[in-house]
Structures are given as C-alpha cells and as structure tokens.
Specification:
The protein has 305 residues and is mainly beta. The chain has helices at 93-98, 117-127, 169-181, 223-226, 259-264, and strands at 9-18, 27-29, 31-35, 38-39, 45-48, 67-70, 74-78, 85-88, 101-105, 108-114, 132-136, 142-143, 155-156, 164-168, 196-199, 209-215, 231-241, 268-269, 275-286, 291-293, 297-302.
Length: 305
C-alpha cells in the first residue's frame, strides 16, 4: 500500500545534505538523525571575525572550497593548497563550563565557543582574513522567528533562520531547462544548500506543502531513535529568500552570474515582499531523534493561500 495514499502528493527522499560549518561545503549522506535544531551536526560551527561578526560566502566565496568530512572521533577539513585539519567535535570542557561568548548571526546574538588558535590560524591563512571557528553553545536556545511557525516554538543553530531547508529534484530540473534554453550551463542543488531534496513531486510543489510527512524505517523509529514515532513531520514554514550565493560555483568559488537573473524572471515571491525564493524553510513537528534516510517515502497535503 502506498504511504499516505490519500494525500495530495507522495514521493521519496532523494538526497540528504549536512553543512557542518556555515557557508562551507556540504556533505551528502545516506542517513542523518533529525534533531531539534535540524539534521545532526548541521551548522554546528561558524566562522566569525575576531569581534564576533559572522562570515559567509557572500563576502568570502572561497569558503565553499572548504570540505568537511565527519569521522568517528573528529571532523576533518580539506581545502586547496592547505594541509588537512582535524577539528574536535567538542570544545575543551573548561571552556564549556565557563560558557560561550556573544556572536552575531544576522539579527540574532547567540552564545558560541571558540575552537582555538591553531584552528583559527588555518582558516585565516586560507581565507586571507582574520577569523576564528566557533562552535554553537549547546546550552543556548536560538528561537526561530515565531511569525512563521504558527505558534510552534522551534530552535536552530547557525543556520540563517530555520532548522531544515527543503527543495525538490523537479525544481532543480525546471531551473536547468530554463538556463539551457537561454544557452547557460546547468547547475546542481549545491547552489541552494538544501538539507532535504525530495523526488516524485512536481516543480516547486514544496512551496505549497503544508506539512511534509516522512515514513520512518522500523530501525529508526523506536526508542532513543524516534521515541516510537512511525513518521517524522516537517512544517513547511517560510519560503527561502535568495542572496548572491546561488551564483557562486561550488567547484571553483567563482561567481557565474546566471542563476539569480534567471530566478528573477519567474521566482519573485509576494509572500516575502517579492524576494527571489527557491526552496522552503521547515521546522520539525514530530520525529525528533529519528533517522532520516535516502529512499524513505514522503507525503504531503497542498495548501493554496
């Protein structure tokens, strides 16, 4: 029997991507634990200036060339021309006990823990600007803007504003058809930095889904893994407004300049004041602790505002 066959649409999880360091390269994974702040390890670290201002690809495109790898005991980072760097998952216990220092993410001031001078020197050398790697303080709660969550309190770490970003294979394919018709090269989903890519739906169906349901496997739906839940539920909360990052080639860090002009021709969204949007920000309503896997079935009902 089809999963939630009575719903408006069904499909599958096509891809899962975790971005351990904000604005650096992502890691495509076969499975990821859903936590209160999004996929496990997603945006758990962030680069900042010595005085606590966050850094992103918008100003430093070379950040996309920093490739994380999640190992058993630590995170390994590589970048062109640099030796591999190993970053511990946890901060020195003494520093954790003292608490973090304030750091800014857009309009939010949050608490963060510093990863040390050796790690800071590696990033400073590669990006050619003074910066430090910060770990989100696990004792701090960064609340998602309640304007978009229908009264549900949700938290996130160093993401721009929401725990999970969802898009679809069909939306990427639609964009590429438009780019190729204009004579431009196609792009892939890395330009949009989604966490969850769904398949089997029509282009930009994610814009109109009210809640996205994910059928959990038996081994990821009980006990500590999912609290006995048979499915996870993501509330699709806010269209994702787009900045210059989709125009940055993730393989070269060069600005290609073709994506946002194309989005401007068909993706101006009145729900967010006419901004260019691609993908939907989401929060978890059910399934915290469950394991999401590529290939799991999804379903949703559509809303038409």
């Amino acid at each position: 029997m089809n999963y939630r066959a009575d719903h408006d649409l069904t499909g599958t999880i096509h891809s899962l991507v975790v971005y351990p360091i904000k604005s650096c390269a992502g890691i495509a994974v076969q499975q990821a634990r859903l936590t209160a702040t999004g996929l496990e390890w997603d945006r758990a670290w962030m680069l900042a200036t010595p005085d606590g201002e966050f850094l992103t690809q918008r100003e430093y495109p070379r950040m996309v060339l920093i490739q994380p790898e999640l190992l058993a005991t630590d995170m390994r980072l590589t970048a062109p021309g640099m030796p591999a760097l190993h970053v511990p998952y946890e901060v020195d216990p003494a520093q954790s006990a003292q608490g973090g220092s304030p750091i800014r993410v857009w309009k939010d001031t949050v608490s963060a823990l510093d990863m040390g001078d050796v790690i800071a020197a590696w990033f400073t050398q590669f990006l050619e600007t003074p910066c430090r790697l910060k770990r989100f303080d696990p004792n701090f709660r960064r609340i998602v803007d309640p304007k978009w969550t229908a009264g549900t309190e949700s938290i996130t770490q160093f993401a721009d504003g929401f725990p999970v970003l969802v898009t679809s294979t069909a939306s990427i394919e639609d964009l590429n058809q438009r780019l190729e018709a204009k004579g431009d090269a196609p792009v892939d989903a890395r330009r949009f930095r989604p966490n969850l890519i769904i398949a089997g739906v029509d282009s930009h169906d994610e814009d109109r889904i009210e809640s996205l349901y994910i059928e959990l496997d038996a081994d990821g739906a009980d006990g500590a893994d999912g609290g006995g839940a048979q499915e996870a539920e993501l509330q699709m909360s806010k269209p994702c407004s787009r900045c210059p990052i989709p125009d940055i080639d993730p393989d070269t860090a060069e600005c290609s300049g073709q994506v946002n002009p194309m989005l401007r021709s068909y993706r101006q969204d009145q729900r967010v004041g006419g901004a260019l949007t691609f993908g939907m920000n989401a929060i978890a309503l059910a399934g915290e602790g469950a394991v999401l896997k590529v290939g799991q079935r999804i379903a949703g009902n559509m809303r038409f505002d």
